[in-house]
TrEMBL record:
The keyword Transmembrane applies. Keywords: Membrane, Signal, Transmembrane, Transmembrane helix. The chain crosses the membrane at residues 65-88, 94-117, 124-146, 152-176, 183-207, 213-237. This is ABC transmembrane type-1 domain-containing protein. It comes from Dreissena polymorpha (Zebra mussel).
Length: 279
């Protein structure tokens, strides 16, 4: 929308700069005048030397036209450059922020998982050790008491010790298995989370880059088209095409403002050449 307003303002500026400061007076010759054939004579025309390069004061100035065209092109290109730079900077900032946030989240998750796993393992090991120690102490106490109080066969003591050892081993094995399973699960979860996060970040970055490239390409194409259109319009408004009408001895100028005008010699103007508007 801002670009449209800018172009409109520049076109209006172009038209303003090319409007003549003084418009020559137009008047109609009587129909009875055979030399004019009821054509309107545009007074104040530039002398024709040669006639084919005549310019009337109502036509636009070529110099001003090209100055305005250059100004339009420079302004449009500058606006496009600013827009593209702003878009690219914003996209880069967004991508960097997203990547940093993702990395921080991944690091935090990994650290938390590792801490939890370590705490769990330590707690489990401590519990196992305590249980084993307690069991062994109890067994020893029982055996000693039994031996002191009642004379027991050595076989009974051996059986008790074996049972205690087996129980302790089973407990330790179970604890170790549980800890290993927990650690494996935690590691798998962390790896999956990290992979998902990395994939998401990569996809987001790719999408952002593609969008930025597409936007930049579209902006450049639009700017080129607009500049070309503006230049063509200004050149058409400013342009004068000389040609010769079949059957006529004198050249004519096709002007987008006046229409077809003839270059002729009129005795009433003391022999000076004037531009006669067809009509």
């Amino acid at each position: 929308m801002e670009l449209d307003w800018t172009l409109s303002a520049l076109v209006l500026l172009t038209l303003y700069l090319h409007v003549p400061q003084t418009v020559p007076e137009l008047y109609s010759r009587p129909k009875s005048d055979p030399t004019m054939n009821n054509r309107a004579i545009l007074e104040g025309a530039t002398s024709l030397t040669p006639p084919s390069i005549a310019f009337s004061s109502i036509q636009f100035s070529t110099g001003k036209c090209w100055i305005v065209v250059v100004v339009v092109v420079v302004v449009v290109v500058a606006v496009v450059v600013v827009v593209v730079v702003v878009v690219v900077v914003v996209v880069v900032v967004v991508v960097v922020v997203v990547v940093v946030v993702v990395v921080v989240v991944v690091v935090v998750v990994v650290v938390v998982v590792v801490v939890v796993v370590v705490v769990v393992v330590v707690v489990v090991v401590v519990v196992v050790v305590v249980v084993v120690v307690v069991v062994v102490v109890v067994v020893v106490v029982v055996v000693v008491v039994v031996e002191v109080v009642v004379v027991v066969v050595v076989v009974v003591v051996v059986v008790v010790v074996v049972v205690v050892v087996v129980v302790v081993v089973v407990v330790v094995v179970v604890v170790v298995v549980v800890v290993v399973v927990v650690v494996v699960v935690v590691v798998v979860v962390v790896v999956v989370v990290v992979v998902v996060v990395v994939v998401v970040v990569v996809v987001v970055v790719v999408v952002v880059v593609v969008v930025v490239v597409v936007v930049v390409v579209v902006v450049v194409v639009v700017v080129v088209v607009v500049v070309v259109v503006v230049v063509v319009v200004v050149v058409i408004i400013n342009g004068i095409r000389s040609r010769v009408i079949p059957g006529a001895d004198e050249p004519v100028i096709s002007d987008p403002v006046l229409g077809t005008v003839l270059i002729g010699h009129v005795p009433e103007t003391h022999g000076s050449n004037v531009i006669v508007v067809s009509g």
